[in-house]
Automatic annotation (TrEMBL), chain A:
Localisation: Cell membrane; Membrane
Chain segments carrying region Disordered: 219-239
GO cellular component, one term: plasma membrane
Name of the protein in question: ABC transporter permease subunit
PANTHER family according to UniProt: GLYCINE BETAINE/L-PROLINE TRANSPORT SYSTEM PERMEASE PROTEIN PROW, OSMOPROTECTANT IMPORT PERMEASE PROTEIN OSMW
Family membership noted in the UniProt record: Belongs to the binding-protein-dependent transport system permease family.
Membrane topology listed for this record: Multi-pass membrane protein
Primary localization class, coarse: membrane
GO BP terms: glycine betaine transport; transmembrane transport
SUPFAM superfamilies found in the cross-reference section: MetI-like (SSF161098)
Gene3D superfamilies: MetI-like (1.10.3720.10)
Pfam families in the record: BPD_transp_1
From TrEMBL, chain B:
An annotated GO cellular component: plasma membrane
Transmembrane segments: 28-50, 62-84, 90-109, 157-181, 193-218
Annotated ABC transmembrane type-1 domain residues: 28-210
Annotated protein name in UniProt: ABC transporter permease
Any single biological process term in GO: glycine betaine transport
Its membrane topology: Multi-pass membrane protein
Annotated compartments: Cell membrane; Membrane
Main location (coarse class): membrane
Length: 239, 262
């Protein structure tokens, strides 16, 4: 490591760090906001579930670099515009979370939904005040995955010259110099860890009942098989 | 977008050393080589962990940690190492394949493990009751039951590898990424988009092909396809009400975990 190089370029690195945070955080938030209503629709209408999951799966299949360079043609933006990165990552986050939101809402105990109905909750208030809060653990788990992979994906945009930490990788390669590459890797990991911790914290703060029940009764063994099988089924739609 | 289309339909771009067929061959070569190596490493380990139940925490921890590492950075780090320390053609190909294998291992490993661990204990007992040895049960009962999940792990691995093999063009490897990287350098947007469309098509077609293979090799009893009579895809698609996942956080994490995106 050449610390003097880091010292001389610290202003540049800080600015890349900040835009990296921005480029990864905005799509994560936007993707979640868009996925909530779409996931609710997929949860409520079975036919829309297969349609939405199929489209999402297809979208998720497109490699990031390909999407980054195809978007300017579709949106009329310039190829260097950071907006392409934001749109592409928002689409990926949305594609990942639609399914997670729908499955999270599916996981809410039908008895709870019935009770809420009996207490006079209408569809929308019930969704917002009963079902969504109970689905937070599931949605949060998906959000963590999306946030962390967004941090990694942003760096690919360095191939187009969009300023962010990925530039440290291209600079390092061109200069035949390890210091910027290692710095970029470490800073990306730091951002990913911070995002992950923030989301974990938000999940903990918004689900106080989980700690309350966890201590008193044993947590049931997860049955991942159902969901996995269903994911395979849903994917088979487009086969 | 139209420029990209014109580039793709120009016959002269399809032949020669820089032609689409050559680049497709390179892209597929890197992808398949990395997938085979990753499968040879990850399938036995995943099967062993799922069968014995030992080392579970290691697998999930590894999968999570690897997802946070930016692939592009890792690729450049290893490529630079290769250029300084290795010789010949292997100097670039070796490090790139290593990165691709590192990417492909976690989805294959965790899905193999998850598929086998999720086999109903009653089925395991039945296999034992019929006189099967541990090894017999693994190969004749557990692996066939885990096949849908194993294939979905292979699909995730394939997608990641195809996407990352594209980025590998930056460290002067071949494949479809060449068009994107060279097009950007030459400010030839038609070429960039043409390359991007080819990569997207390769990813989607490959993904569909693996799904199709799964359709034929997975036991009909598992997919819900009727053994006799006409089987429609509708049978596969619409899950019964009871199929809804009851438990959730871990289940979703597992499903999502298989993914990862590049």
């Amino acid at each position: 490591m050449r610390w003097d190089w880091l010292d001389r370029n610290s202003d540049q690195i800080i600015s890349w760090f900040l835009s990296h945070v921005w480029l990864a955080a905005v799509p994560t938030v936007l993707g979640l906001l868009l996925a909530l209503p779409l996931g609710a629709v997929a949860h409520k209408y079975r036919w829309s579930y297969s349609v939405l999951i199929t489209v999402a799966g297809l979208l998720y299949t497109v490699p990031s670099l390909a999407l980054f360079v195809m978007l300017p043609g579709l949106l009329g933006t310039r190829i260097l515009d950071p907006i392409n990165v934001v749109v592409a990552l928002t689409l990926y986050t949305l594609a990942l979370l639609v399914r997670v939101v729908a499955d999270g809402l599916d996981s809410v105990d039908p008895l709870v939904v019935q009770s809420a109905k009996a207490m006079g909750y209408k569809t929308l208030p019930m969704l917002i005040r009963v079902q969504l809060p109970l689905a937070i653990p599931v949605i949060g788990a998906g959000l963590r995955v999306a946030a962390v992979s967004n941090v990694s994906l942003v760096s690919v945009a360095a191939l187009l010259g969009v300023p962010q930490l990925g530039q440290l990788f291209t600079v390092g390669f061109q200069l035949d110099f390890f210091t910027p590459i290692i710095t970029g890797l470490v800073l990306c990991l730091v951002i990913a860890a911070i995002f992950d911790m923030l989301i974990l914290l938000a999940i903990r703060l918004s689900t106080p009942w989980i700690r309350a029940t966890r201590s008193s009764k044993p947590v049931s063994e997860p049955t991942a098989a159902d969901a996995d099988q269903k994911s395979a089924d849903a994917k088979a739609v487009t086969a | 977008m139209n420029a990209g289309w014109r580039w793709l339909t120009d016959g002269s771009h399809w032949t020669g050393a820089d032609g689409v067929w050559t680049r497709l061959g390179e892209h597929l070569w890197y992808t398949l080589l990395a997938l085979v190596i990753a499968a040879v490493i990850a399938l036995p380990i995943g099967a062993l962990i799922g069968h014995t139940g030992k080392g579970t925490a290691l697998v999930t921890g590894l999968a999570n940690a690897l997802r946070a590492i930016p692939t592009f950075g890792l690729l450049i780090l290893l490529a630079l190492y290769g250029l300084t320390n290795l010789r010949g053609e292997f100097a670039l190909l070796g490090p790139t394949i290593v990165v691709l294998v590192i990417l492909a291992i976690p989805p294959i490993l965790s899905n193999t493990y998850a598929g086998i661990a999720a086999v109903d204990p009653a089925v395991r007992d039945a296999a034992k009751g019929m006189g099967m040895t541990g090894r017999g049960a693994l190969f004749r009962v557990e692996l066939p039951l885990a096949l849908p999940l194993i294939l979905s792990g292979l699909r995730s691995a394939f997608l990641q590898v195809v996407a990352t093999a594209t980025i590998a063009a930056f460290v002067s490897l071949g494949g479809f990424g060449r068009y994107v990287v060279d097009g950007l350098a030459q400010q030839d947007y038609a070429k960039v988009v043409g390359g991007a469309v080819l990569v997207a098509l390769l990813a989607i077609i490959g993904d569909r092909l693996i799904a199709l293979v799964g359709h034929f090799v997975v036991s009909p009893g598992l997919t819900g396809r009727r053994v006799s009579g006409r089987a429609t895809t509708a049978d596969l698609v619409v899950p019964a009400e009871s199929d809804k996942p009851q438990d959730s956080e871990a289940a979703v994490l597992r499903t999502v975990d298989a993914g990862g995106k590049h």
